[in-house]
Amino acid sequence: MDTSADTAQSHLELESVSHWYGDVCAVRSVSLSVRPGSFFTLLGPSGCGKTTLLRLVSGFLNPGAGSIRIGGVDQAGIPADRRRVGMVFQDYALFPHMTVAANIAYGLKMHRVPREERADRVHAVMQRLDIEDLKQRYPHELSGGQQQRVAVGRAVVLEPLLLLMDEPLSNLDAKLRVRIRTELKELQQRLGITTVYVTHDQEEALSLSDDIAVLDRGRLQQQSDPVTIYEKPVNPFVAGFVGSANMLHLTGQDGERRLCMYRPEWLYVAPTGAEADDPKTEIRTGTVTAREYFGPTLRYRVSLTDDAPPVYVDAPSRPRTGQRDTFSPGDEVALYIPTDGGWEIPDRG
Amino acid sequence: MAADRRLTHPHILKEPGVAISYVALSVFLLFFIVGPLVVVFLEPGAADWARVWTTPRWRTAIGNTLSMAFRSTATALLVGLVYAIAIERGNFPGKRIFELIPLLLLVSPPFVGGLAFIFLLGRSGLITSSWLGLEVSLYGRTGLWIAQTLSFFPVAFMILRSSLQSMGGTLDNAARGLGAGRTRVLFSVTIPLLVPGMLAAALFIGIIVLADFANPLLIGGRYRVLATEVFSQLTGWADSGMSAALGIVLLLPAAVFFALQQFLSRRSHGRYVTVGGRSSQLPQVGLPAPLRILLFLFCLAVAAYTLLTFFVIFAAAVVQLWGINYTLTLDHVRRSLRHWPELRNSLVFALSAAALCTLVSSVSAYLVHRCRVPFRTGLDLATLLPAGIPGTLYGVALVTSFARWYPALNGTALLIILAMAASYIPVGYRISSAALQQMQVSLDDGARNLGAHRMQVFRDITVPLTANALFATFAYAFIRSIGTVSAVVFLVSFDTMVSSVIILNLAEQSSWGRAAALASMLVLITFAGLALVRLISGTRWNRMFTR
After folding, report:
1. DSSP symbol at A343
2. Prediction ipTM score
3. What would the pLDDT profile of B182-216 be if each residue is shown by its tens digit?
4. B172 occurs within a structural domain
5. Which domains does chain A carry?
6. Do B3 and A22 touch (CB under 8 A)?
7. Which chain A residue is nearest to residue B465, measuring alpha carbons?
8. Do B446 and A21 touch (CB under 8 A)?
9. Contact call for A58 and B460, based on CB within 8 A
10. How many domains does chain B have?
11. Rounded distance, CA B78 to CA B86, Å?
């Protein structure tokens, strides 16, 4: 199989796409642009419209308004079976009554690819995905990870313009999920195929993606690279959905009060009384009210002396130097806030 | 049928395969099911309606019909309930045999029970006359009541048994743990939880009793009910208006039962179904020994009668004259072979009907549950409709409507096959729907995403994965069609006579030996079909027949 660059690396564009189920609006005027060859993730809580978007792109649904272009071609009126969009389903949807080889060959058969070419292409894909040994097996005889590779193989053998994945890791156990995640990313890079991935897991989204679109209640909240999404969320929803966010009021050097977001690992706590005097750090006193142990890190809940909501602070559970101690609930601590390290959320919602 | 978001698909009717099957199915349902029923509704004139209410004979028949519907349903339900509790909670040996026996009765042709009743409890019956030396006639109300109870209790047994099985032992054990005695558990936990099952079973049996044709014909005597009056008005008096009017009167209670049944099955999901996490494998709470012995004896009696049912039919075929002369002979068997043309008709028609029923029911289930076609609810209802229509009314409807539309078809095989198939389409539809609902929608989507159009998905994915359901539908339709009487009794002609009707004719002429010989053959064919299905697919029959 030769996935030549012009077909595999296609541009996906959504322009003001909306979709209604009856009176319920599932997707509201979403505009997106997916760069050719990139790994793009639709991230959001359940019911945010991400799966609907995927079904719109794959042609199982028709948008109520707006347009979808793949490689510059408007997809309106092109039915699902003629879209050249590969899909990997949440439950993989492998045909249980067909062998691995037959599953992969099915699409080629439907596209009337001659028998000999079919065999060659199936073989090439299986080689590429390292599943040749599984050729004659049935889906129920495969492990979760193997099933997933077959599902990917079945989709890419047709040399689609676009590969869609609907939460393909959600059926795997936690340990396997991390391994397959790495595999998936490598695979995508090897195939170089433009991929749209749907998940509600922020960690998955951050680790896999070139770009992320965060959705909530059918609306696009933010589209950017993972670092920007995590460090510079445009609104409180994105800030809260992709991680924990502390909102702190700071007074700048110009005397203006600003509301800034701090991730828990951007702050640190130390015993009171020995505060270093650093103009770039603001120090507040608080009391530890809870401590959660995660293994590598510890998370403290610190109540500041005023009535502000508690602040969450992450610290290494075994500090490399003896400078920082661990604290217990009830301890009084100094909270160090790097004044130029916070992020001022532009849209307060 | 909740609106499933995932079904939404544009251009559905632009796909030629879907459009063609949609149109074909709609035409079929319209012309052969909905249409004839509309015609039969318009058939009776005002005069016919006036006569229905003023003629004492009809008033009595209406009263008798309703009275039997309540009596026989109540007793069949009671027998089925006790039998089910005995099998599931009695914990006595021979369970597998005891549970098979009602199933045999359930799949047998409808005249088996009535015929056996005559041989066992009739004027010169084996039990009444030979064993007890009684000179009684049970024909009429009492006989019909007994016969219907014994014919239809298996329906209640099957439904309640699956309720009991799904209940598991957890609740019983919980009640025991809370201090209830064994008998108390049965009456305060087990039986109350069966109430929805009993209601479902009652409605199911009610419809069957209303429509029962063979039993009243064979043993009703002068106790007239609507199902047989519909028949005698049309064939005896050629009064299609009166026949249709009586059929419609019969339909009313059946339609109410049917509507209730639909309502209950759609609503009651979850209520009464026991609340909790994963079901556990706790052993069931046993019943006290005296109660178990009573239950065992009850089962034994019912099972013995049922086995006798089959025994006397086989036996009556090989003796000179049942009840009078028990000398062995092969005369009846030999003479019944002259009815080979009718037997062949039965086989051919039943096989065709089974194929038609499988096709229509599976396509309808696919369109309704997998494609967003227009008027899905209408399609769903039209497919389920025959389940609420008494066979005799449907027969009258076919005869009267085709006499108007296309008289040349009357008496042909086509109408007979249609009548047979239509009656079992609802069952097939439910079997296919259940199979489809167990199949992930993503498999369809997956195939479509790979470039298959709808009909290719149906052929490559749906059919292979629901093969068991299709096979079960085919077998069920075949087994029931080959013995059916009520729907086809109006439709047969000299060339298209079927053996089930011949058997009733022979019985009416008191040619017991030949009737029994022919009935034995049908019973054996039925059993062979059942065995074949078990062998091939291992389908859970007990589940299938209670849908």
Report:
1. B
2. 0.80
3. 777 777 777 888 888 888 888 888 888 888 888 88
4. yes
5. 5-241 (3.40.50.300), 247-338 (2.40.50.140)
6. yes
7. A97
8. no
9. no
10. 1
11. 12
